[in-house]
Amino acid sequence: MVSPNQTVVTEFVLQGFSEHPSLRLFLMGYFLSLYTVALMGNMVIIALITSSTGLHSPMYFFLCNLATMDIICTSSVLPKALVGLLSEENTISFKGCMVQLFFLLWSGSSELLLLTVMAYDRYVAICCPLHYSSRMSQQLCAALAMGVWSICAVNASVHTGLMAQLSFCGPKVITHFFCEIPPLLLLSCSSTYVNSVMTLVADAFYGGINFLLTLLSYGCIIASILSMRSAEGKRKAFSTCSSHLIVVSVYYSSVFCAYISPASSYSPERSKFTSVLYSVLSPTLNPLIYTLRNKDVKLALRRLLPSF
To answer: What strand order describes the sheet that includes 11-14?
Structure first.
């Protein structure tokens, strides 16, 4: 409960990178460049997959969903961060903060869940190639994608709803460049027990169970590749999943650094750095990784852009 002498916070101030004024111009150019590359790269991936019949397969269908999630993730974070770098004080309304939190949680958790689905797709393609078409049917792929979006929308709604129920009556400066759960919980003047428990549950599911399922899929894939007699067969099998493995490694590393740590050890500076990795850098690198390391995508890109 908020006491009569306390003022309810109706807007927050995003600290951003105001403690480093000398880096403002560099960071503005850096974030603007990354946002442009992320937006254009992922839009090109979506355009290539939807327009090229040779890319109408489960792997590229999921990649198209991943590119969409990356666009949502970067667009929910970077425009407001760029505004903060241009202005003296970067304020965000309470409702605006909750909206940003929802879309960030929705896209971030969807990406973790989708990476697990994509790992299973590669497992079936390499370990059960004769049954790939029947197991990864269009109906199943559509159901998996819909399940990912729906489950993660519910997850984001629960966390955003719980956050909106908290009382904020003290300091209103968020020690971050966007609205995120840990710094917001530190500002609440009401009990955050339920929020902390639900955050741990989400961490266990997305960062624990999903990660183990992804490791299991790749454990089976590696075992299957090593058992192949042909060196050419091993090379082709590894090339089909190497891009995804790189993306998984980059994303999970940044997410673990950002979230899998006790609340008592929360560090604003470390959180900002790791958040840049998963919310900005990873969505920027994903289309580059899949484009530069995938023969089918490069072929489709050459047809779209003959000079490529």
So the answer is: 90-93, 11-14, 173-174
Report, as ranges of residue numbers, the positions in the chain whose pLDDT lies below 50.
1-2, 4-5
Q: Which residues of 103-138 are buried (b: 16+ CB within 10 A; e: fewer)?
A: bbbbbbbbbbbbbbbbbbbbbbbbbeeeebeeebee
Token pair for 85:
């770098």
Q: What are the structure tokens assigned to 45, written together?
A: 């991936």
Q: Any idea what DSSP says for residue 174? A: E
Rounded to whole angstroms, how far apart are CA atoms 232 and 48?
Answer: 28
Of residues 133, 155, 152, the one with CA closest to residue 144: 152
Tell me the pLDDT tens digit for each residue of 154-205.
999 999 999 999 999 878 899 889 999 988 998 999 999 999 999 889 988 9
pLDDT in tens, 135-155: 999 999 999 999 999 999 999
* Residue 106: both structure tokens together: 């929705």
H or E element at residue 173: strand 173-174
